[in-house]
Amino acid sequence: MTRRSVDAAQASPALHHVDFGGPPGAATVVCVHGLGGSHLNWDLLAPLLRARYRVLAVDLPGFGLSPPPRGPATVRRNVDALAGFLASCGGPVTLVGNSMGGLVAVLVAAGHPDLVRALALLDPALPAPGRLLRSPEALARVLAYAVPGGGEWLRRARRRRIGARATVEGTLRLCGIDPDTVPPALMARSVALVEHQDDVVGFDRAFLSASRSLTWAMARAHTYESAMTALQIPVLLVHGDRDGLVPVGAARTVARRHPDWRYVELKDVGHVPQLQAPDEVAGLLLPWLDEIGAAPPG
After folding, report:
1. Of 81, 98, 74, 56, nearest to 206 (Cα)?
2. Under 8 Å CB-to-CB from 221, ≥6 apart: which residues?
3. How much is the pLDDT for 6?
4. CB–CB of 207/64 below 8 Å?
5. Looking at residue 161, what is its pLDDT?
6. 3-class DSSP string for 78-127
7. Residue 18, C-beta contacts closer than 8 angstroms, at least 6 positions apart
8. What pLDDT is attached to residue 293?
């Protein structure tokens, strides 16, 4: 089936998404990327799901091909934008969220239970107090990026100094993925997307404001934890044991607090399992979706 890009302005004026297709009348699965990600994060997983489900991959405001918002790209703004997009999907969907997209998906599911029938979290952002402070280099970069205006300039200057391809490769390595294992066509599209964003004012501001808002949400985690507790739908939590950004211990703690959730740990997998181990992730998602009755009869 042909991969088809759709301008979500038809339904949600702020968001772009990609429709990977699916059988007529199939239930809808909506995939939500993490910080710095895009619809491209789902290029390897979505084709494995679309034989039974209609699969959409959305770009949050200021990421991928969705235009940057006029104000900060906060977690709350992302939640509102995603809820507006889901309202246009014609019925409750299954949300699949990775990293920051997992946090956003939880908040949408808790705040708009009529829009979400099930939730799959792939290495979602989870509270891990003090982890960032253990890395002096990371802390120095965060402090530099925190300066209004200056952070945007530093990020753009660094990207232009090292180039789009090195930027993509660095992001992949940060997530625990060897760039050489990424299909060349997907790598080429990822590089082209970074080059496109470099020409559009506001993408760096969106990334940094989202990063700051995400950090704040993790520091004041009670709202997030309350939202997880409020969920009354099936939840699948999948986490790589080699995740260098969200420690697997955080996922184990959440799994213990929510024994009604299904928890699966992936061996030797990092922060973005849908890119690193798409076959393994699909092997978990498809039977789980079938079991919970996410697909309509027949």
Report:
1. 74
2. 127
3. 42
4. no
5. 83
6. HHHHHHHHHCCCCCCEEEEEEEHHHHHHHHHHHHCCCCEEEEEEEEECCC
7. 3, 4, 5, 6, 39, 42, 56, 57
8. 78
Q: In whole angstroms, give the CA distance from residue 219 to residue 211.
A: 12
> Does the reported pTM lie above 0.85?
yes
* Residue-level pLDDT at 298: 39
- The low-confidence residues of the chain, meaning pLDDT below 70, are 1-14, 129-154, 156, 199-201, 294-298
**The predicted structure's pLDDT at residue 197:** 83
Helices 203-219 and 222-230 pack at an angle, to 10 degrees, of 80
Closest CA to 210 of 94, 82, 88, 93: 82
- What the block records as the tokens of 102 is 């997992």
pLDDT of res. 153? 54
Asked whether the beta carbons of 294 and 94 are under 8 A apart, the reply is yes
